[in-house]
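Feature request, filed as a ticket because there's no other form

It would be nice if the structure record came with a short human-readable summary line next to the tokens. Right now we just get the raw output. Example of a typical job, pasted below so the devs can see what we mean:
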Amino acid sequence: MGKIDVIFFIVIFLSANVLFSQEVLLSGRVTSNEDVENIHVINKTSSRFTITNEKGEFQISVKLHDTILLSSLLHHPKEFVVYQKMMEEGIVEVSLTKTTYELNEVVLGKILTGDLGDDVSAVEGEPITARKLGIPSYEGPPLTQSERRLKEATTGGGFVPLNPILNAISGRTKMLKNRIKLERRDDLMYEIRRSLEDKLFEMEDLPEERRNEFFYFCSEDDIFIQRCKVSGDIEILEMLLVKLQEFKKQWQTKTD
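Raw output as currently delivered:
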């Protein structure tokens, strides 16, 4: 091998090393018929991760030939390998498909005739539920959006579930728990106002422009909130009257 060939080989070798070690910030967007927020985007090669925003957008540092995994409970997981064109363009779009559960054909009971009276009398046994059919499902009260996101953040499959670990590290689980706590407090105060506001201000007047401020004052009292959860309307009304006196004293102090 001549001197020129050796130099050429060294140049190619060094260029390849630079190419493979180069790191870029890859911007991406997830498309799907389902919610595209909070999908985990994991660089399996470098053990880095991020999550998508409400538009399904994300950014993550990558090198050539890194393996990227996108994972969420609503979608089938999807992997792709970073190739040269992605590195040059710095952008990628990934389409995810909805997770579905399919059943073989089943017979749920007797064949119906179309006559409502005969068909109702022919029904036997306990009602069919998703659990009995082997379909993973939630059978409690309907979850709010924040509760669904918390459930997704704290559950996951596999030998070592990634969702609970990554969300605990990023602080997302704690943030969602705090959001749910505030939402439940707001719902409780809304019900109290709906049921007792008129009666309260018939007994003890307060200028209308101060009423929102008063109920916000009540909602900041953790002891008041906890007692309201286990009390009836009469007890809550008595507590509101006490809080109203406290509020008026503070209000008077500020105006003096």
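Something like this underneath would help us a lot:
Residues 172-203 form the longest helix (32 residues).
Residues 25 and 61 are 4 Å apart (CA to CA).
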